[in-house]
Amino acid sequence: MTSRRDVVDDIRATWAVRFPELDTEPMEVIGRILRAARFLQEAADGWLAGAGLTRAEFDLLSQLRRSGAPLRPGELTAGVVGSPAATTKRLHKLVDAGLVRRATDPDDARAARVSLTPSGERLVDELLPRQLVAEESLLEVLTPDQQRRLAGLLRTALLGWE
Q: What tens digit of pLDDT does each residue of 131-145 get?
C-alpha cells in the first residue's frame, strides 16, 4: 500500500475538518473512479484528436465495426456511454465526415440503420492498434496482476450497477 497522498485524500481530510461526523470513505472509490475516468477520457480524446474524433465517436465507430452489420441508433446507444441525443449528435458528425451512412431500415420504414462506410472501416482498423498501445502505456503504472484484479473488481461493480 502506498503512503503517498492524492487529491482524494486531501478532499477527505478537508471534509473531516468541516464535518467530522460524516463518513467520507465512499470517496475513496467513487472519487478515484470519477477522477480516473476523466483522466482516461481526456487522454483518449488527445490520441484521437489527430483523426478528428473524440473517444465517444470512436466508440460508436468501433461498435459498428465489431457488429459487422448495420445497427439502429438505439442499439448503438445501448453499447456506449451517452444518451440517445448524444448518439444522434455524434452520428450526424460522423455522417458529415463520410465515416458512417444512414439508411432506411428495410423492416421498418420509420427507422434507420447505421453502418460504416469503407472510409470508416479503414479508420477504425488504423486507429484501434494505436489506441491499444496508448492504453497499454497508461496501465504501466500497475503490474499485470494489479491490472487483472482491478479489471475483475470493476467488472463486479459494473455487473451490479448495470
A: 999 999 999 999 999
Q: What angle do CA 82, 59, 154 make, to 5 degrees?
A: 75
Report the C-alpha gap between 155 and 87 in whole angstroms: 24
CB atoms within 10 A of CB 6: 11
pTM attached to this predicted model: 0.83
**Residue 31 belongs to a domain:** no
> Buried b / exposed e across 103-116, counting CB within 10 Å, b at 16+?
eeeeeeeeebbbbb
**Residue 24 domain flag:** no
Q: How far is Cα 48 from Cα 56, in angstroms, rounded to an integer? A: 10
The boundaries of the domain holding residue 103 are: 52-161
Question: CB of 117 within 8 A of CB of 98?
Answer: yes
Instruction: Supply the CATH number for residue 81's domain.
Output: 1.10.10.10
Supply 87's cell numbers: 448518439
CB-neighbour burial class of residue 97 (10 A; exposed 0-12, middle 13-18, buried 19+): middle
SS3 84: helix
